Amino acid sequence: MWFALASIVLGSLGVRGLDDALALERSGDAAQALDSVEQLVRRDPTWAMARIEAGRLRLQLGKDLDRAEADLEAARFLVPENPRAHYLWGLLMEERGRRREAIRSFETAILYRPDYVEARFRLAGDYFSEGNWERAVLQYRALCELQSDSTLARIQLASALEKMGKLPEAEEELRRLVSQHPDSALCRRKLGEFYARTNRPQLASKLLDEPKRKMRELNKSAR
Length: 223
Fold this sequence. Notes:
Distance between the termini: 90 Å
Helix content: over 70%
Radius of gyration: 24 Å
CATH topology of the domain at 30-113: Serine Threonine Protein Phosphatase 5, Tetratricopeptide repeat
Structural class: mainly alpha
CATH architecture of the domain at 30-113: Alpha Horseshoe
Low-confidence stretches: 1-13
CATH superfamily of the domain at 30-113: Tetratricopeptide repeat domain
Mean pLDDT: 88
CATH class of the domain at 30-113: Mainly Alpha
């Protein structure tokens, strides 16, 4: 009974300590936050959440990636179904140039959490960088469903479709973007550049050579 009570008390103190450490990060002192989290890891090396935060902070600070790897590897062992542990491992693998391992980790993260937008963006980007257009398209489509107002995801989806040779679908995505955001210079430019690449100079010029807005004339001074 006393052992169980002590475990509850220590657990509560640990969570409070982690909350205090993350508050330090929010105040702008990520280095001190890492020091505090490291103390929690030393106190309880099997506490996965502290390991995850230690790994994340080291990645954020670009500090001692070997220890970040050890923390995140331990976290993945302790909580194998935690999507955040796999996502952070993927970021670490990207940092170390091990893209295939990063891809596997991001895939695992979204397996456990399908709405994990950050992991899908990374996964889609890695597939795009590899030239795996079909898988990139699948991930960007999923992102567009998760975030219907994401301009970046739709632009990247159109780009991947174009790379696949699916020009009508790419054009449809870009036209939809311009329709949704008619005042967006970025969206109009992307569609104009697409028209230029597909040998439609007249349509391209309408979007790329738009006259600058005429400045409003100022009232003449009374002096």
